[in-house]
């Protein structure tokens, strides 16, 4: 095997996101539940003998090589294993950058998983997880490969069972630097910690979203457009929420048919809001497992 083509990298949603404290090093302690959805980037990997790691494809404009998580992931795997191969990596981006959907982190995890297979480096999931965390807080969950209750800075992961759900995901045109949100003096940093059993019990009794996203109030204050869109979705009866640090918003439904009905019903109202620009709108199915979960040995 010298190539892997059309390898998927799924987006994620944060079903809730609580900031429960701050560590001495300045990083925030979080609790969240990650769920993958069937909105995918796709990557092609060709093994080369010259040891060079090269990239090509859409979605790379303005992204310096030293900030590209895919290149960093590939180099990290090679350094950790002593692999002598190189790779040509081609991107086909569909997950919007900077939307809170984890596209860059997912691409990095897919790179670790795919090159571990293509280079025959044979790392286990635990070993890949150790390489994933330095790349970014969201990278480990994509290597973990299952819906997860996450704590700490994203490294403490426990699998959770989630009911079948579809989601309407909406992408407003807004640039939201994550670091600025976490630096905001008004950010809630002392939410009460929740036990995973509390979340699991709540899931069996309710169909809506658990908890809240503590970053949402800061983003809405800084970006009134997002506040207006969320208000419109909620006034229309949806349990809508921001994922990650934004700007993407989502609402959950029993199935994709219901999601499309509500999308068609509400999207025109959102387009009619003053000073609102929508860059993307997707109906997605929630996934229980990462599509590459079986590519890694536990």
Please describe what this structure looks like.
The protein has helices at 69-81, 103-118, 125-132, 139-144, 178-183, 196-205, 216-222, 224-235, 256-271; strands at 3-22, 28-48, 53-57, 86-92, 148-152, 156-159, 166-172, 240-242, 249-253, 278-287. Helix 1 (69-81) packs parallel to helix 2 and helix 7 (216-222) packs across helix 8. The longest helix has 16 residues, at 103-118. It has 9 helices and 10 strands. Strand 1 (3-22) and strand 2 form a beta hairpin. It is of the alpha+beta class and 298 residues long.
Please give a handful of descriptors for the protein shown.
298 residues, alpha+beta
Brief characterization of the structure:
This protein is of the alpha+beta class and 298 residues long. Helices cover 32% and strands 29% of the residues.
- Supply the helix-strand structural class: alpha+beta
Q: Whole-Å distance between the termini? A: 22 Å
Helical percent range? 25-40%
Percentage of β-strand residues: 25-35%
| Total beta strands | 10
Count helical runs.
9
Identify low-pLDDT runs: none
The biggest sheet amounts to: 10 strands, mixed
Shape: globular
The helix/strand series, from N terminus to C terminus, equals EEEHEHHHEEEHHHHEEHE
Give the averaged pLDDT, no decimals: 94
Query: What's the Cα radius of gyration?
Result: 19 Å
